[in-house]
Amino acid sequence: GMSSEITLQGNPFENIEVAIKKPDNSTLLLYTVTDDKGKALLTISDYHLRQAGNYLVAARNLDKKEDYGTAGTFFEVYAGSVSETKSTAQFTKNSAQTGETVQMTVSLMDSNENKIDGHVLKVIPSSASSSVYTKEFATDQNGQMHFFITSNQEGIYEFTLFDSSINKTLTQKPKLAFSGSGSF
Questions:
Q1: What are phi and psi of 47, to 5 degrees?
Q2: DSSP summary character for residue 120
Q3: What tens-digit pLDDT sequence spans the chain (184 residues)?
Q4: Could you give the CA distance from residue 174 to residue 153 in angstroms, rounded to a whole number?
Q5: How far, in Å, CA of 90 to CA of 159, rounded?
Q6: Which of 33, 109, 115, 179 is the most exposed place for a label (fewest CB within 10 A)?
Q7: H or E element: which one contains 81?
Q8: Helix or strand or coil: residue 47?
Q9: CA angle, 179 as apex, 177 and 180 as ends, to 5°?
Q10: Residue 132's closest CA among 145, 115, 119, 142?
């Protein structure tokens, strides 16, 4: 979500085309002209840098109709802070029988829907009658962490999602219903 600058060096007053390959493999083309010392400063708008990942940079002189130089220069854009509206929690099902285990997947994303990895999450049930466990320590490269929930008592349970990496409670409070045997 921030702009970035690229400094280019060439001959004086050259028309330069800069190709920036984004993490999704699309290419952004920008144009500039070097000054009397052969230097150009190019600002890339934050609009073009919303996707987290590596951006490869290559340039060429338009006047000489040359090929792009090797795209060995790159910069990295990191995911922003956790978005409470883009982050989600989903159950494999919204209701279960008592004693049954239901999986909940929490997905952390920033406001541009970039996945946030490496965050330690806790799921806190509204009642001690339900139990929550996970085999994972933190969100994976997809920004996800999986929890398994079970209860031996009937009822509707609400869960608080806490990101202990940033000491923040998410506003979403997913609910899961457990029922006994019989028809309802």
A1: -55, -35
A2: -
A3: 789 999 998 899 999 999 999 999 999 999 999 999 999 999 999 999 999 999 999 999 888 878 887 766 788 999 999 998 899 999 999 999 999 999 999 999 999 999 999 999 999 999 999 999 999 999 999 999 999 999 999 999 999 999 999 999 999 999 999 998 765 5
A4: 18
A5: 11
A6: 33
A7: none
A8: helix
A9: 165
A10: 145
Residue with tokens 């929930």: 149
The tally of CA atoms less than 13 A away on the side-chain side of residue 174 is: 23
Kindly compute the dihedral angle of the four CA atoms of residues 60, 65, 67, 68, in this order, to the nearest 10 degrees: 10
What pLDDT shows up at residue 182? 61
Pair type for strands 175-179 and 95-97: parallel
Residue with tokens 């409470």: 84
Q: DSSP per residue over 22-46, as a string?
A: -TTS-EEEEEEE--TTSEEEEEEPG
13: amino acid identity, one letter: F
Q: Measure the CA–CA gap between 7 and 41, rounded to whole angstroms.
A: 5
Kindly state the tokens that stand for 126. Answer: 């509204």
59, 70 contact by CB (below 8 A): no
Determine the Cα–Cα distance for residues 57 and 76; give it in Å rounded to an integer: 11
Q: Tell me the pTM.
A: 0.81
Euclidean distance between CA atoms 161 and 126, whole angstroms: 11
